Amino acid sequence: MLCQVFPEQYEQQLADKQQRLIGLMPQMASNLQVFASPTAHYRQRAEFRIWHTAERLFYAMFDPANPSRPVEIEFCPMAAKPIADLMQPLLAAISTNDILKNGLFEIDFLATLSGEMLVTLIYRKKLDDQAWLSAAQTLRDSLPINHIIGRSRKQKILLAQDWVMERLAADHQAWFFQQIENSFTQPNAQMAQNMLAWAREQTRRINADKSSDLLELYCGNGHFSIALADLYSKVLATEISKTSVKSAQFNLQQNQVANVQVIKMAAEEVAQALQGREFNRLAEIDLNDYNFRTIFVDPPRSGLDDLTRQLSAQFEHILYISCNPETLARDLETLLQTHDLAASALFDQFPYSHHIESGVLLTRKTA
User: Fold this and answer.
1) Which residue, 100, 155, 148, is CA-closest to 126?
2) Model-level pTM?
3) Catalytic residue annotation
C-alpha cells in the first residue's frame, strides 16, 4: 500500500483494529471510545524519494515486497490536500532548474491546519549556499510554500526558518504549536484534536475543582501540557529531547501559559528525583510544592520502563497515551493490580495500517 486510500474498506479496517485492541486488553470492551479518521487527506507530513531518469523526475516509494523497484507516486490521497495539490507543480518547477534539480534525493512536506507549508529538499551533494538560496527564493515565490530548507550531508540552508506554526482546536478552545522540521509532531492533525479533547474530558472527571497538579512525562513540544494546563493548578512536564524542550518553552510563551514548568529529564530520572535523588536541573524546583495526583505518560513504542511503571502506580490517576498496543497491554498487566480502567479510547491516527494509537484513564482501586 503506497499512498493509496480505500474508503470503502475503512469501516471494516477500523472495526478490526477495535477487535484487536479489545483482544489484547479485554477490560476495554465496556468503555472503549473509537475516534475515526478522515478517510483521505489526513497526513500533515509526507516524505518521498525523488527518482531521476534521462527524461524526467518523479516521486517514488518502494514496495516492501520488491524494495529494489521504485513505484511512481503521481498523487497521494493520504497526504493533506495542500501537500497533494503541491506535489506535481513543485516537481515541475524543480525540474526546470538545474540548481534545485541536480543531486535531489528526497522531498519532505510539513503542512498545518492553519495553512502553513514547509518543504525540505534533500540532496546527495554539497550545495552552493547563495546559488541555492536564490533559486529556492524564486521557487517559494511561485508556489504556496512558506519556508524551504535545503539539506545535504552536514549542511542545512534555511529559507527562512525550519518550523511552522500549527493551530489545534478542541473543547471550544485553540492552541498554537511550533512544529519543527525533522522533529516529532502528530501526523494526523484531525486525530490530534480528538486526542486533546479526550484528554481534557478525562481530566475533568478526575480533577473537577482544578486543585491538584499534573506530572507529565515524554511531553514533546508541550502538545498535551499546554492543552491541559487550565485544568490543573500547576503542571510539571519533562522531556529528554533538547529540541522538544526548547519548542515546548516557545509554545508556552505563544499560548501565554504560565503554570507549566518544562524541564529536560528522562522519565527514569524523574522517578529517581521523586524518590529523593538530587539533580542540578531541579535546583530551582521544589517538588514538595506540587500536589501531584495525576501522571500523564505518552511513551515511545517501547512503553514504560520498570522504574517509570512503578512510579506511575504511585499516582491516584494515570492518563496513558500509547502508540503500541502490545506494550500498553504489558504495562497494564502491572498497573491494573493497583488501578481500575476508568476510560479507554482508540485514535485511528494511521488509517489503512496496522498501527493503533490508544488512550486509557486509570484510577486507583478503592478498598
Assistant:
1) 155
2) 0.95
3) 323, 357
